[in-house]
Write a structure and sequence with these properties.
Blueprint lengths: L11 H5 L4 E5 L5 E4 L2 H6 L3 H4 L23 H5 L7 E7 L5 E11 L11 E8 L1 H28 L3 H16 L3 E7 L6 E8 L6 H5 L4 E2 L4 H9 L3 E3 L11 H6 L4 E9 L2 E10 L7 H37 L12 E7 L10 E7 L5 E8 L4 H17 L5 H15 L8 E11 L2 E9 L5 E3 L5 E3 L18 E5 L4 E5 L1 H4 L10 H9 L7 H16 L9 E7 L3
Antiparallel strand pairs: 1-2, 1-5, 3-4, 4-5, 6-7, 6-11, 7-8, 9-10, 10-11, 12-21, 13-14, 14-15, 15-16, 16-19, 17-18, 17-20, 20-21
Helix pairs in contact: 5-6, 5-10, 11-12
Length: 554
């Protein structure tokens, strides 16, 4: 209904029939007419409103100032509200507030009447349905933001990537202009700057310069959030004394801020601030969304920390299952490579070792434990330490027999876990070096001769830890000048590409025939690189891989 060009008050019976509330006031703000719909909307008897000031229907915080001019109809009729619809709280007859959509129109004085007898027509509609719809749309946006935060965290590989995605997501989805992240420093216990993000085309140079600050508990906006472990809203950063960077906010024309904690349990891992150039009200629903986002981020960071600690322990355990360095063996070049397999297991089951014997000979061992994880690591440790203890016998077959006995004793009441191994004892012979080789269910070592021929050595017996009656034997092999002996685990030959094709022993032997593989270190590097190429991009999980090469210079 367009009331902007009415020249006189319409007949009362027309207004009485309208379903929306209509109030007419004179130029002094006194009500001269109210239709029956006012009773439905605000609970007032229309007749009792006549002569009452319009402003009496406003909550106390909107009451006129002492000079009585605030919100007077003639000033309103000449201002920005004329012809517009504005949401405004008004008082119900029982005292509670009702939010209405208010439309104002000015009625000029009737012909022949003084000009100051103009009137203001107020049309009031219940805004609750509109507010509910707006709130539902707002909550929908908040839920979308929460889902996108979850997605960003799920796809992030580490904390840096997570924050590079989460902060822009929050700002973009929730219409904030900048974000600043503060982390709790483990040494000082204070909050230190960890990152700043701004929307495209925005800049907060002054606030960026303040990121050299640190905050203790209760200091500034980050400190308040940390102390209370709950979001804090500051609608006017320029005047609120709790915000210690007011001058910087003013310089950047940043007016409103909200900060929320990054929580892991009861621990505050950090605080995230969001800033807006516009001075705005932060609804409770948004505060709850930010609190939830902070808990999500905290859980993500907590999981990363836990995984880091587990990886650290696993790396320490893995190092204990391998020699810290290869010894120097006179007349022989040694090279080794180890890589744990993929998947969830952090500790592999492969191992290798080289150690001197009391009589000047050397023992070398490569072993592969069935399975991965803590139980496999325990058997790997048992295998390695038993081999060292039994090495004094000086016979590789005796070493394997001792490991077999130890494994059978250890697994007497548990599930069967077997071990494959290749053990050799190296000694100087009349024509150079010689090795005695004993194999228990393990891939035979490959000997590359000086002319490039490659041959598999030894005759494997049953794996260790399966049968107490298995007899292991040793087979002597000469290592002439220019030869190279490679011991390896099945993680090499059984490495599969995405089509399921294994690397295979044929490919391994073909690789070792190259002239460059006469050198032990070059051969190990070449095999490791070929296996990595095989499994790169494969949908199959890579197995542990251990390589140990002994080269006799020509």
């Amino acid at each position: 209904m367009d009331l902007g060009h009415l020249s006189a008050v319409p007949p009362e019976h027309l207004l009485d029939a309208l379903p929306v509330a209509v109030v007419v006031a004179d130029d002094q703000g006194r009500i001269t007419y109210a239709n029956p719909a006012i009773r439905t909307l605000l609970g007032h008897d229309p007749a009792l409103l006549i002569g009452r000031s319009l402003t009496k229907s406003l909550p106390q915080r909107f009451q006129p100032s002492g000079n009585g001019t605030t919100l007077r109809p003639q000033s309103v009729g000449q201002g920005e509200l004329l012809g517009r619809t504005t949401q405004l709280p008004v008082l119900h007859a029982d005292g509670h507030e009702v939010v209405v959509d208010l439309t104002l129109a000015r009625l000029d004085a009737a012909p022949g009447k003084p000009a100051d007898q103009r009137s203001i027509v107020c049309v009031l509609r219940d805004a609750s349905a509109t507010i509910l719809l707006e709130r539902q749309l707002q909550v929908s946006r908040y839920l979308t933001a929460t889902l996108r935060v979850t997605t960003a965290l799920t796809e992030a590989a580490d904390a840096d990537v997570a924050f590079q995605r989460v902060l822009p997501t929050l700002c973009t989805e929730l219409d904030w202009d900048a974000a600043v992240l503060w982390e709790t420093d483990d040494h000082s216990g204070r909050l230190v700057h960890a990152g700043t993000w701004t929307a495209p085309g925005e800049e907060v140079a002054a606030l960026r310069s303040e990121t050299r600050r640190t905050f203790g508990r209760g200091e500034g906006l980050p400190g308040l959030v940390r102390a209370g472990r709950a979001p804090v809203v500051i609608e006017d950063l320029w005047t609120d004394p709790r915000f210690l960077r007011g001058a910087a906010a003013g310089a950047d024309d940043v007016r409103t801020g909200v900060a929320f904690p990054v929580l892991h349990g009861e621990s505050v891992l950090g605080v995230c601030e969001l800033f807006s150039h516009e001075q705005r009200t932060v609804p409770p629903e948004l505060v709850e969304v930010l609190a939830h986002a902070g808990r999500q981020i905290g859980q993500f960071l907590g999981r990363l920390r836990a995984e880091s600690e587990v990886r650290g322990l696993a790396e320490t355990l893995q190092r204990s299952l391998l020699p810290s360095h290869l010894p120097t063996v006179p007349g022989v070049d040694l090279a080794a490579h180890y890589r744990a397999g993929g998947g969830s297991a952090l500790v592999g089951g492969d191992t290798y070792d080289v150690m001197p014997l009391p009589d000047g000979r050397w023992m070398a061992l490569v072993a592969d434990v069935c399975g991965t994880g803590a139980e496999a690591a325990a058997l790997t440790a048992l295998t390695r330490h038993t081999a060292r203890a039994a090495s004094a016998a000086g016979c590789p077959a005796a070493v394997l027999a001792a490991i077999n006995t130890a494994l059978l004793h250890e697994q007497a009441t548990g599930p069967l876990r077997f071990v494959t191994a290749c053990c050799l004892v190296l000694e100087r012979g009349p024509r150079g070096h010689r090795v005695g080789i004993s194999i228990a269910g393990h891939p035979p070592p490959l000997l590359r001769t000086a002319d490039g021929a490659v041959v598999a050595l030894g005759r494997p017996a049953a794996p260790l830890g399966v049968d107490p009656d298995t007899v292991y034997s040793a087979h002597p092999v000469d290592l002439p000048a220019g030869s190279m002996l490679l011991l390896y685990t099945d993680g090499v030959t059984e490495a599969r590409d995405t089509a399921g094709e294994q690397f295979g022993e044929d490919a391994l032997q073909e690789l070792l025939r190259h002239d460059r593989c006469a050198d032990a270190e070059v051969a190990v590097a070449a095999v490791a690189a070929a296996v990595e190429d095989q499994v790169s991009g494969s949908r199959y999980e890579a197995d542990d891989m251990a390589l140990l090469a002994l080269g006799v210079p020509g």
